[in-house]
Amino acid sequence: MTHTAVKDVLPVLQRSILVDGFKVVFDHKKSRGARFVDAQTGKSYIDFFSFFASNPIGFNHPKMADPQFEKELLEVAKVKISNSDIYTTQFADFVSSFHKQFAPMFDKLFFIDGGALGVENAIKTAQDWKVQKNMAAGKGEKGVQVMHFREAFHGRTGYTMSLTNTDPNKTKYFAKFDWPRITNPKVHFPLTNESMEKTKALEVQAEDEIKNAFHSRPDEICCILLETIQGEGGDNFFRKEFLQRLKSLALENDALLIFDEVQTGFGFTGKRWAFENFDVQPDLIAFGKKVQVCGCAVKMERLNEVENVFKVSSRINSTWGGNLTDMVRCTKFIEIIAEENLIEHAKNMGEFMLGEIQKISEANQIMSNPRGLGLWMAFDMPSKELRDRAIAALYINGLMILPCGQRSIRIRPVLDIHKNEAEEGLEILRKTLSTLA
Question: Distances in Å between the alpha carbon of 25 and those of 8, 35, 242, 392?
């Protein structure tokens, strides 16, 4: 097998693909915990990026070196099983562990590769349900529209092209459906009487738009779809009362409620799923990223009103049905999360980090609107230009971090980040922003 020299990695890749990410080469052996090491230079970075929030556990966690786990991982990696039709003990172990630890509030699971495809199959489940209900009521074969929100990111595949509306470069020129798009009544921090009144006014506007859409498109809308906390669109939070109202509006208008938990899920917010922070139960969620495997989880109470996609063979499916290697890895992650109480750790460490970010904001006028839940955190800068300068400077100073929205910076550490790693990253943040003020 040919191995590319470290110094040649980027040139080799640039010949065939667009290399527009971090100009680093990941060092698998030297990276530890929340410290990312560049194999080209040996430089270490504090990782507030975690592969777009998809890596749940720090690098080279000692329990990931368990010989039995490594043996099983290698065994399943040698042959890529088509999980949809061929079954294994490892598949059963994963499904059992995932359902018990993370999805006991749901009845059925569907697995596939790619968060957008998890969203799409949740949508297809809702479309199938709504169209069948309409046909049974003599209303004809209709009911496939998806109500969604401004500043949403749900992926870049077929149906999701009609829903994602963050960066226009990600959707322009591609075919899209004319589906109802609703104002997103995001919360502004710090919470004051003025900011809350503004948010409540936007909620009234959003509810009016929702009611008008259901009225003007009778029997056409199958679901209300929302990221529980919007990510790429700007780390936008919603009030608990608004999310609960969405549940009521879905029930009143014979639609399903779907939360996109691809980025917010798997313990990130100090709960298994972000929706658990808001006392509302969706009919479906889409999951992915930290789970390693993507898909959707479904409560069957309303779905069972029809011969749904979990009863009729091949209505939703794929060749691989997720990746067995990813499932074995996730099973180990679930074990580590449970043994080390990492969901509670995410809650407590997130409270500490957000408190420190608020202190930095108070001392630095170019930083505003600090917000967070668990280890999901963000803040705003005065402009996109200054935000982009800050991210570039932070990278030079040893902190990997990401933009979101028009002028926000998002923080996405691993679930088991240690306090000293968090403090080091926050100190880089404090010093760097002080030079830009």
Answer: 10, 14, 43, 17
Which residue type occupies 49? Answer: F
Token pair 């997130």 is at which residue? 350
Alpha carbon 285 to chain centroid, angstroms: 11
Sheet holding 181-182, edge to edge: 108-112, 294-298, 284-287, 256-260, 221-227, 145-149, 181-182
- Exposure of 436 by Cβ count < 10 A (0-12 exposed, 13-18 middle, 19+ buried)? middle
Q: In angstroms, rounded to a whole number, what is the distance separating the alpha carbons of residues 426 and 354?
A: 10
Is the C-alpha dihedral spanning 274, 276, 277, 279 positive or negative? positive
Report all structural domains of the chain as residue ranges with CATH numbers, in order of start: 6-61+341-436 (3.90.1150.10), 81-322 (3.40.640.10)
**pTM for the model:** 0.98
Cα–Cα nearest to 94, from 368, 346, 325: 325
431: left (phi over 0), alpha (psi -120 to 50) or beta: alpha
Measured distance CA(103)–CA(100) in Å, rounded: 6
Residues 162-219: tens digit of each pLDDT: 999 999 999 999 999 999 999 999 999 999 999 999 999 999 999 999 999 999 999 9
Amino acid at 123: I
CA atoms of 78 and 177, how far apart (whole Å): 41
